[in-house]
Amino acid sequence: MSFVNVEVQVDALPRFEDVQFHRLHPLYPLVTLGVAGVFELPIVVVGLTLVFSVPPLRSSAATGPGFLILGAVLAFLSFVAWFAYKSASVIRYAVRQHDIIVHSGVYWKKETVQPIRRIQHVEQLQGPVDKRFGLFKLKLFSAGTGHFTFEIPGLDAERAASIKQHISNFERPEKHDFGDDGLGEPVADPGPEAPEPETGADSTASNEQGSASPESNDG
Amino acid sequence: MAEEAPAVTPEWRRLSAWSIFHFSVEAVIQNVQAAYFFVPATYGVARSGFNEFTLMIPIGIIVVVLVNAILNYIFYSYRVLEDSIQVRRGALFKKRLNLSFERIQNVNLEHPFYFRPFGLVTLKIDSAGSAGEEVNVAALRVPEAEAIRSYVAARKRAFGRPAEVAHDDASRSAADVERVFFTRSLFDLVIHGLTNNRTFLLIAGIFTFVWQTNFSFNRLVEALGIDFDLIIGGWSIVRLTVLFIVSFILAIGFIALLSVLIAIVTYYGFTVYRTDAALTIKRGLLTKHEIHVRKSRIQTVTVRQDWLDYLLGRRNIVLERISHRQHQGDPWAEMKRKILVPSVKLHETTTLTDEVLPGCRLEQLSFTPIRKRYFYKHAVIRSGIYLLALTAYLFIPNSFGWFVPLVLAIWPVHVLSLYMRWKRAGIAVDGDLIVVRSGVIGIDYHSFPAFKTQDISHIQSILMKRHNVSNLVFHTASTTIKIPYLSSDVAKAVVNYCVYRVEATEKSWM
Hints:
- The complex is a heterodimer of chains A (219) and B (510).
- Chain A has six helices and eight strands.
- Chain A has helices at residues 27-53, 55-62, 64-89, 128-133, 157-169, 215-218, and strands spanning 22-23, 92-95, 99-104, 108-115, 119-126, 135-142, 150-156, 205-208.
- Chain A is elongated and about 85 Å long.
- Chain B is α+β, with helices and mostly antiparallel strands and 510 residues long.
- Chain B has helices at 19-30, 32-47, 51-54, 56-74, 142-159, 186-195, 199-212, 217-224, 228-232, 237-267, 307-312, 331-337, 349-356, 373-394, 403-424, 462-466, 488-504; strands spanning 13-14, 77-80, 84-89, 95-100, 104-110, 120-127, 135-141, 164-165, 179-183, 271-274, 278-283, 289-294, 300-304, 314-320, 338-345, 368-369, 426-430, 433-438, 444-449, 453-461, 469-476, 480-487.
- Chain B is 44% helix and 25% strand.
- In chain B, strand 6 (120-127) and strand 7 (135-141) form a beta hairpin.
- In chain B, helix 2 (32-47) crosses helix 7 (199-212).
- Chain B is built from 17 helices and 22 strands.
């Protein structure tokens, strides 16, 4: 057995912090803002109607403290809307040969590196609003624990497909023991229950892409 | 080889009637929280005089458990096919499980105490998939169980994917011979019981349920006919203080005793056997547990040390296996996938860690400390909170006299603990090994091979970025490891190195 022990040039390793990040689809932050607005608008409308139609509320709103509270509520709602917009617009992603990097966070900046070799399966999601604007979300699952999911939202169909393609084309030398499909789905027959209901236009379409399942390649 | 064992049977097989025990115990364990409620409730009802009704409750429970167990027994059948094991079970909700050998991770024999007189075992089969896919075949005779186990092992070897199967005597090479290499004495277990209190879990469980059911201690005392006023009404303060101190010491002593008992019952006869590729751990007084694990399946090695452990020079070593998402928050599953080696002496550590992390010498690693800013920032924030509390106190009339001394006593202790936390925290990278150190008094280590990282995050707030500090979060398949306030340059270098190890190493993390 010939043993070699090559020194690792730590400074010469590829640097994740130097990659070229891509922005999401320009519509995505606006769509997020729109969704936040749609949720907040009824609150504002109902609240203001109440304040101006109920006499005791109206009179107290005119006083100093009442005015301040009203202002604070409005400021809070606009902050929530701004925050939703901002957190959507700061998301960046980068695809390298061996890994995918997502950068996110308004105040807490977070960069997560997900080696493709560790990805177990990929989910492509499209909610009702996303569908209207032709946007997709990719969820990448590794065996990492916790409620943590690694996702890239706000992709157009072409980008989503090319990232999935990149992941499924990745050469994996080792074999997993995760069975034949690696999706963790029981092989048991479904019994009396009907197969998965078809997702309609108004529900979140979650289809586990067989083509993106890494284990389907090495079997 | 195992092919000639009578394991494969195309026809469905029933369990032995003894399995009713298994199903009863299973039901009781699953509803142990409900039991917390029933014991005091039954007692309360008994005292308040509904005697004809009182007996109904335990009898009712026993009947329900038994009927459920018998139904489970009647409707349970299984068969071993050429490449899979199939189980049919459930009276009302029929369940059919088809577990192909390829997906099987572990095959273990368990010797529960209620089967031992009959020489029966439970065959436990874990799959790589989701949590609901475990097969427990109860009340098998040992040769039957062994036949199934070695058959599964043989089939898996034929696939080229060796199973984690203990005691499979077929085709074993010299390097594979299992030998004892680590044991724990009764004395070690007593120490473990004292330093790692498991009673609190039990007591906390009882209290939560007592509290949730509006169970009144006063009413119980009344029902028992104890009149505290009569007994201690005439006592002096000194006598009451002595009573309090004595009962406090007694309570501590009782808790410690209970904890020692639990430790002995759980870890009695703790023995680790090794082969070159795998470890087998046997333990347990009433129910004998036997865990067999391939060394390569260990994802993280956690060394835990409480303050008492620190004083006594002991530490617990936890070998963590893959955890499934579904297991989150399920304490039984958590316990199962973590292999705890109790109260290891400091100099024995390397004997164990060498098995899974060869060459790992925790004491000799040079740790990069975290930035002192961690201590300053947290000390300032905590001190601010204490100051605020003291200031608020000045504005409250007629408040308690003990408040100021209490705050003044806790404050420095809290700041000191933050200082210790900063002193302890650090990261070491040595070849393929990553070790994160933490702790306040005792020292904890989380160590894992860099290539077993699943993903890694570099996190910093805008403020932290200005001061060039970062937090790191590693996810392995068994746990999440965080280290705060590293110098950003170090943190980024660690990310790059770790990612490089994952991507350049062709070894499987499984």
